[in-house]
Amino acid sequence: MEKIETIVSLITAHGRSAVSVVRLSGADAFNMAKKLGIDGKLEHHRIYVRDISYKGKHLDRAVISVFQSPNSYTGEDVVEISVHGGSISSKRIISALIELGCRHAQRGEFTKRAFQNGKMSLIEAESVLMKVNAMTEDVFDSADAGKTSLLTFYAKSIREKLIDLKAYIQSSIDFPDDVEYDKENAKMRIDLIVKDISSLYEKSRAGYVSENHPLMIITGRTNTGKSTLFNLLLKRERAIVSDEEGTTRDIISEWADVNGHPIKILDTAGIRKTQSKAEKIGISMLNENLKSASLILFVYDIEKGLSEEEKSEIERMKDTPMVIAANKIDRAKRKKAEKEHIMISALTGEGIEKLEEAITEKLHFNEKIEITVNDRQMHIIERMCSVLLSDEISVIIKESEILDERVGELLKEIRELTGEILSENVMDNIFNNFCIGK
Amino acid sequence: MLECDIVVVGGGHAGIEAVTIIEQLSLKTAFITLDKNKIGYPSCNPSIGGIAKSHLVYELDVFGGLMPILTDSTGIHNKLLNSSKGPAVWSLRTQIDSDDYPADALKRISSFKNTLIVEDEVLRIETDENRVTGVVCEKSGFIKAEAVVIATGTFLGGRIFIGHDSFPAGRYSEKNSQFLSDSLKNLRLSLIRLKTGTPSRSYRDSIDFSKLEEQAGEEETGSFSVLSNDKTRNIEKCFIGHTNLRTHEIIKDNLQSSALYSGLITGIGPRYCPSIEDKIVRFAGRESHTVFIEPMGIESELMYINGTSSSLPEEIQYKFLRTILGFENIRFFQPGYAIEYDAVDTREIKPTMETKKIEGLYLAGQINGTSGYEEAAAQGFTAGLNSALKVLRRDEIIFDRYTNYIGVLTDDLVKKEIKEPYRLFTSRSENRLALRQDNNFVRMIPYADKVGLDNPSLTKYKKINEEYLLMKTELFNEKDELKQKYKIFNDPSKSFLSFRDQFPEHSRRALLAMYSEIKYAGYIERYRRTTKRILYYKDYEISSKEILLSSNIISKEAKEVIKISDIQKVRDLFGLIDPSDIENVILILKKK
Questions:
Q1: What's the rounded Cα separation, in Å, for the pair B41 and B285?
Q2: Chain A residue with minimum CA distance to B491
Q3: pLDDT confidence of residue A437
Q4: Which pLDDT value is given to residue B83?
Q5: What ipTM does the predicted assembly reach?
Q6: Contact call for B85 and A173, based on CB within 8 A
Q7: How many CB atoms lie under 10 A from the CB of residue B456?
Q8: Which residue of B100, B448, B451, B565 has the fewest CB atoms within a 10 Å radius of its CB?
């Protein structure tokens, strides 16, 4: 087998900071460190304070942490060099190491190696990504080691039931004289499996967070205060706000923490008849985004009331869950909105808690996040839900050879969910989502 | 000195199919058996077929094999197993008349122009520089041949055990072949010891049938042979009885006198066809086991007591059987017994059934560690066919496991270590829904054409296949999908009979194959894509295991197998790992 290349990367944030940490991982990690003028033996789990130099030039004084294979993050020999923050010191060290034969780590490569070296399961590796990218505390906590194994736990418990069922079907097919195929028995087992899968689906939906999910789109006619509301939900100024109609022309999006749930919010150009070219592009992009939206937040001006055009707009988007906000109640104290409309003032913040509640409720986020899943996991769980559709079961159950195929399909999906088998591009996809250095 | 092209040793089900296919290829064969009146005699239960086994019999029928014809002509009771499930797992099982079957076999083989039946015992296989030159027989002396097929069943070093008694035998009251076993050892073939068992044959008039549950034969099951026009005979009945706690007690109390449990038998028995002692020990919690009582023939005074195979002493067998309702006065013609015999380690053979060490030497049946008449027949056919092709200097034919059960069986045999007698199941196939009784002709005609066969069964199947293809072009589009207007046929609640009524002009066999094909269309399409790809790349070289072991797209289970297996080409992985893993192996190899 070819020798494992030693990789190097900065593992703390770029830019100004007190300390920068450079990590080296691979078979040559110790040797490379020594070539930076670090004398003596490097021992596992020891910390050294040393001057480092390259080609006779002193680079910095560093704190060096040593981890010997296999007891390191990646499972390989690892050296972590802490130096002064800012970009100069770490940059010089990394350039020196690359000249010495190290390679710059690719996105997520340290974690990928940890996974490949059996230091963590795929689901654990994915949870590292989730933690690094976590937008809210709830997500961080649910991606915690104990909780991610909850996803594995649910998957394994379904798998066990599937294997039992498969063994039962196989023996009833191959030994019909001895094992009578009892449809009631099979039905009972299937019902349990279906129940488990839908419960896993429900839990996953609540904790499904990915680059573009859950996505909430703020839309409505121009000058109804959408951008003001957007800033309010974000709890900071992001969009430019003015009284002029059509201020927002492009689409801007940001993550917000809504009652502990990370939600990606998209602010859009308002809808109006006369449109500039930029606005037209904005509107067509809005239509594209509507397809992947989990929720629409439709905003109208209560002072003006809901116009016919607005009503038809709402009708047009009725396939997507929607929350309707009647804005500007500060200006029209006496006006009453329809019962299901949430009365708010984006300007004063009045009614915002009620709006946030309505949003999380519509997104079925009434439960606290128990497990967090990413796109890959969610898609597999969605596919699993469609393998045994309730209206088919009564038919499939009679023909156990077909049921056996379906059970086989489910087992395959579970193997993929737990990362036992993966397709190569799935692998790359997962690890490319890591920031460099993790 | 007798001179022929091929010698076939052993007159069991493997031997019969070997000479039948060789006869079709017009080669001169010496068919050597100890007793010609016992050719095709059922050593164990008097029935042919059953799950997965019936699939083999249907496959043999396309090649004009004798087993389907003999079974239909001597059948006395038929049952379509799994008939409440879908057609992919329907399995015909026929009770046969155990006297008529050998008589009919002898009659038919005697009419073969190129086959000479020789009653003799083979003492030795003769070779020259690791190539077979013939066999030496006790009476006939040296018989010269270019190829030899050994299909000796349990006769090879056979030894019977009943309680503390044991004696050399090939079958009850029949002599074994010891010399041949030594001869194989001298050829440096490594032998293993296996065990099987059989229950008692009891007198019909000693059983009180009024106390047993009757099981009549079923009509409309279809026949094995296409030449029988799906007509079958149901003129005998089977019966069902049950063991009870008293029965189990007696067996438990006497385990120490069972040859199996006293340590006399070292060979390993079949887990799937356990002795009654095994059942009592392994399923200690069960209060009752089913016993099937099957007639040995129409005029036979004997019944086969299926499910009570035992190596306990005769008097204990009496004692426990007589606790069963209806067996109070049972009398044996012969008691149950266990038999231990030599088998060759199948890593010694190729998928053509030829030994790797000795060119021209083929092995088939129980000698390869299998159990079952049908498994034996399929190997006899494979060995006979390939020995003939070898003599004719033609390319060998290897059956692939993704299109037929002969392939599943032969592939499993050469790749998997046999530790107990091997029995075929539908779950051993990765393509269960595509490998059916009903589409035997679709799957096997290409092989028959490759051999260049011409026999009445094949001719008839070709007609049926034309019908089938005609229907297929009508019902399916170019992409092999069911046309929109015929989607109504894909209704799972639609029975075969109602489908048949729609096309009164077509034959039952073509219709049944079509009916199943529609039913499983989606699944089969998926199999077909995978199978096509992996068969296309079957000869791709695996240059290094390392790149496979370090890949993330191959499952852990598959890696474990890859680590310990001797693999040079993609096809060496067939049957060992999942087809989807094989697809990924190909992907990795191609990338490289």
A1: 37
A2: A395
A3: 46
A4: 92
A5: 0.84
A6: yes
A7: 12
A8: B565
pLDDT at B479: 81
Cβ-Cβ contacts under 8 Å for B348 (sequence gap 6 or more): B189, B190, B355, B356, B357
Positions of chain B with pLDDT lower than 50, given as ranges: none
Domain ranges across chain B: 2-194+341-428, 201-340, 455-527, 537-591
Cα of B194 to nearest chain A Cα, Å: 23
Contact B587 A424 (CB under 8 A): yes
Which CATH number covers residue A267?
Answer: 3.40.50.300
Exposure string (b/e) for A252-283, b if CB count within 10 Å is 16 or more? ebbebbbbebbbbbbbbbbbeeebeeebeebb
CATH tag for B2-194+341-428 (out of 3.10.350.10, 3.20.20.140, 1.10.1740.10, 3.50.50.60) = 3.50.50.60
Structure tokens at A224: 């109804």
Q: Which residues of A are annotated binding-site positions?
A: 23, 80, 119, 223-228, 242-248, 267-270, 438
Encoding tokens for residue A432? Answer: 């490319």
Is the predicted pLDDT of residue A60 greater than 80, yes or no?
Answer: yes
On whether any CB of chain B is under 8 Å from the CB of A243, the answer is no
Domain count, chain A: 2
Binding residue ranges of A for GTP: 223-228, 242-248, 267-270
CA distances from A385 to A291, A382, A406, B95, B309 (A): 21, 5, 12, 45, 47
Sheet with strand B115-119: strands edge to edge? B115-119, B29-33, B6-9, B147-150, B361-363
Query: B299-303, long-range: CB within 8 Å, 24+ apart, which pairs?
Result: B299/B99, B300/B97, B300/B98, B300/B99, B300/B204, B301/B203, B301/B204, B301/B205, B301/B333, B302/B201, B302/B202, B302/B203, B302/B204, B302/B333, B303/B201, B303/B202, B303/B203, B303/B204, B303/B207
CATH of B201-340, picked from 3.30.70.100, 3.10.20.30, 2.40.30.260, 3.30.540.10, is 2.40.30.260
Interstrand relation of A78-84 and A57-67 (parallel, antiparallel or unpaired): antiparallel
Q: Which amino acid is at B97?
A: D
> Is A1 part of the contact surface with chain B (CB cutoff 8 Å)?
yes
Taking CB atoms and an 8 Å limit, are A415 and B550 in contact across chains? no
H helices of B259-404, where? Answer: 276-282, 314-321, 373-391
pLDDT given at position A248: 65
Q: How far apart are CA B508 and CA B496, in angstroms?
A: 10
Q: Judge: B556–A420 Cβ closer than 8 Å, yes or no.
A: yes
pLDDT of A57 above 70:
yes
Say whether pLDDT at A146 is over 70.
Answer: no
β partners of residue A383? none
A9-18, A347-356, B462-471, B529-538: the lowest-pLDDT one: A9-18
pTM of the model: 0.82
Q: Which residue of A has its CA nearest to B85?
A: A399
- Which of the pair, B54 or A129, is modelled with greater confidence? B54
Nearest CA in chain B to A175: B51
First and final C-alpha spacing in chain B: 58
